[in-house]
Amino acid sequence: MHEYSAVWVLPPTLTPTCLSADWQVVEQRRTVTSCTFYDTFEWGLWFSGHLLYNDGNGYLLQAFSNGWPETIECTEQGGGKRFWYEFSSKPMRRRLRTYLGLRGLAAVATGAFVTQYCDLRNESGKIVCRIEWSCVADEPGKDACFTSCKVLPLRGYEEEALQVASRLAELGTTPSGPGPVSLLLQRSGHTPRVYTLKPAFALSFETPAREAVGRIIATILTIAESNRAGIMADLDTEFLHDYRICLRKARSLLGLVKNVYPAGETERFRNQLGELARATNRLRDLDVYALTYYDHLENLPSPLHKGLARIFSRFSAERKREQRRISTHLQDHAGSPTLNDIIAEISNVSEHADSAAAFQQIGPLVFKGILKRYRKIKAIAETITPETSDEILHQLRIACKKLRYLMEFFNELFPPDESQLLQRQLRRLQGALGDFNDSSVQQEFLLGWWHKHQAATDSSLAMGGLLTLLHQRRKESRQQIDKMLKEFADNSTAATFKRIFKLHVAPPKNSRKDRLQ
Amino acid sequence: MKIISSYSIKGGVGKTALAVNLAYAFGEAGHRTLLVDLDPQGAAAFYFRVSNAKKFRMSDTPSLSSGLRRNIRESDFPGLDIIPSSLAYRHFDIALDSMEKRRKQLRRVLEEFQDDYDTIILDCPPNITLLSENVFRASDSILVPVIPTVLSQRTLEQLEHFFSDEGLPLDRLCPFFSMVQKRNKLHQNTMVELSAAYPQFLKTTIPLSVDVEKMGLRRMPLLAYSKAGDAAQAYRTLCGEILSLQENVCD
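YS: structure for the whole thing
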């Protein structure tokens, strides 16, 4: 773009003839395009600086800056696509895979764009400036809600472009602004917002435990609730994934910081959350199989593909039924409390009876809890040998998960650098433990399925391939566990845990975080 | 980057009409093209509705190329820019005269534009001066419109002698017949004679046509507004011939 190029936001009623007193305005081509804009629940495209829209002929992926569209990066004919792998062109797939991940696309706004290209000629009839006059409406035929003019100078005629800009300024225009797509999103009620499963809770070392726990639970259950509509609409599998993580985290926190609510209430909350999560267990299992299909396809020899497709098509059919069941379940609740009910109850700090830890400072409780969990992991780690049973590894996985939740929830109370390193190590260990567990569970599930169904020969062959693959993965992740565990349970990591989390004196008035920095 | 000039010692032979239409055709074919109007009459720039260049003094600019660069004007047509003429360009000769290696300076100046343009077309004044000598040395091809008359034949011979005397490569000269009257016997005979004497004559001939005169009224290249006329078709063919000649040279 020319250095003198500028976009001006105009009063919607203005037309290019407003410039005809100074120049001969000659209308050139006019384009009329109706676009539907797409993004994911996490606004993966928006936050990567991209717009994806369909203009009726196909998809266009366009970079944007400060809300204004810039270069078109790639295009693809057609419509009706939701996931990156449904696109066929390589550049589009590659980019969308990065920006969307497992997320599905949903329409977030529509707009009708009319652009009139005009030449501005001087008294000799020479073109001295070009303009692109764009009007945007919610739908074709409706009044423009946004009008802008791009001034495109010609080389050697920069002064004239400045005169055009100055004339537009006199007519009440403003340079740039948030851009038409931002306005369309706003008008359609979809404003891009940052989505995270690890929000900040504005906690301090001295925050009373019940207040801290209540705030964390209410925040993460609100995130869970925000995923409910996506689960019911079955937009992608990440809605259920995140929903379950939030429920699990909230439930786990009630057990990790004990006695912040009266024992009976803690148990009731935990049961309610557990029940909500358990209802979706089967659907999540089936989601995992659906997600691993292409991975398995790549790793199994082609003679087994037919049988694999047969097995997964049965999973897919079951998944559809299960999804419909969950959708209904989430809608009518069948008399059980909704997430919003639980959020309301848990947030109301004063309505609960007193309990031992309710008004204690959260910092010491958490630090003590973290050290306790770490020591437990270290103790298990010392007993691990190649012959250790799966049950012990399962206990280790649960212990790691609890420690990770505690460190994530109360991240704000620790010095960032050292705790991040510990969390990274813990994440790696948990990853290996998770892979091991997934392989074991999947093997068990598939064997059960195979015994139960009278599978055809080709399905049986594929099943054999799958079980071998999972067995191999299980062995690999078992080796990884040993490696990661060695690192996580060594003396240096133990010393870091002790240095950060051991309380030598009574907690000071200032936050522990401040003191450690 | 190729430098092509439209040159003739004689005036009124269709030199500017060629430069203007050739520049348009190159731009249309996707070449980033700069038309430099070196003729003080400024007809080439007039055809593009571009006003005269600002007064040009060597003392006002750090170099000849930056002075030229400041005067570049984008035309109404894609890929085509123009440096308009100005009477002040008569100082060009003086500017070149004051430089060292003064006969090769224009090439050096124009080479500074090679990142910006694929082709530079020079519309030259009808004389032999220091500027003309610079044009001869700067150009990869010198297109010479020749009206098939005795006088034009004489000027072509003069040009050839000048090239021989100065040791300039004769193969840069690309004459072609311009303003040809089909029914004029003298034209026909001269064309046969000249074609035999100068085998490098381009194949296409440009007819004498009122359509070319109308460029002054329309103030745009003939190729921009006429598709079917004889003259337009002839120019289109000639431009195609020159374009393919350039592309072959490039290969």
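YS: worth flagging: Residues 2-145+218-250 of chain B form a domain with the Rossmann fold fold (CATH 3.40.50.300).
IM: good catch. Also The radius of gyration of chain B is 17 Å.
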